[in-house]
Specification:
The protein has about 350 residues and is mostly helical. It contains twelve helices and two strands; from the N terminus they run H-H-H-H-H-H-H-H-H-H-H-H-E-E. It has a domain of about 200 residues. About 70% of the residues lie in helices and about 0% in strands. It is globular, with a radius of gyration of 21 Å.
Amino acid sequence: MNPNVVLPFMSSALSFLFAILVADQWVRRRQPYQLVWTIGLLWYGISAGTEFLGGLLGWSEPLYRTWYLIGAIYVAGWLGLGTVYLLAKTRFGYAFAFSLLLAGLFTFLSQAKYNYADSGAAPILYFGVALLAALVIVVMTARRDPRWSTVATVVIVGGSLVGLVMMLTVQLPAPGYSVDPRTHIPTGELLPGYIRLLTPFFNITGAFALGFGALYSSYVFMPKTRVIRYSLRRDQGLPTLIGNLLLVPIAIVVNFVASLPGAVAALVAGRLSSRVAATILIAIGAIIPAITSGANRFGSTSAFFVGEFLGILFIFLGFLVSIEVFSDVRLPFTRVVLARRERPASNEAPGVGAGGR
């Protein structure tokens, strides 16, 4: 069997099944993050579907354009935006602002190093948008204003519309698509720089939001060992606040690692929230395709479809591990309950990968 056909087919089928299950949650609960995640999973399924068709029937220009627009630009950004809505009432805005700034900087440096043709002013423009949005989100998060998620939405939705217009209007040289001659996996080499530079902007922002958001949520629910302490109180001086903000990513990672032995002990004793395992699986699922898609961008394509399948598989497993999913097993979009188990007492918030307040 051709792995360029089988792996994308499995990724697409699993993504669409996953989208149906999350859409069913949204119909019942009307949480914005569930709707956004549903859209992101549909993008995942469509993108993998184009790869399946390309591997089975051969690539064409319309298929290639659809693949790049949805797979290289939309998927990570929209899945990350779902996490933004899930954690909008927390201080996760600082982390999202950092991911925006990192994405803008990486986009600018990518052009400086690789000098993509026809980039024009795109690197400076993308970095400027990222910097402005990051500053606004930091200010709103400091004020405990959950509407910073609206700013994130403007960036992702606005960028998606810009990408759509670009993809519809760009002229591609024959044959209208580009694949690695060795692996026959599609690459973005045929596209102009101003489109190619959208991918790190969306992928770094989205993958960081999804992966770090999941780790943040698991950290909320696990027993904590605080090796590095920080404070985000608004009444401290500005220099101290800035220093603490810079310390936050390091502190959370170090404290998370230091808390793992206690989490393992709690797991053995049966006292660990199911959301810890669920969100760690989701984080793994976010990290794997981020690595393999990044490798694809720089010419190493062999692991691309494997990473794509493992990514959606781990995220789906994280969804299934969540206690919320298995409390009622029923037919999607109906009230027909196939199985029910008693929900243990806990303070868990609704939604897979839920974060603390």
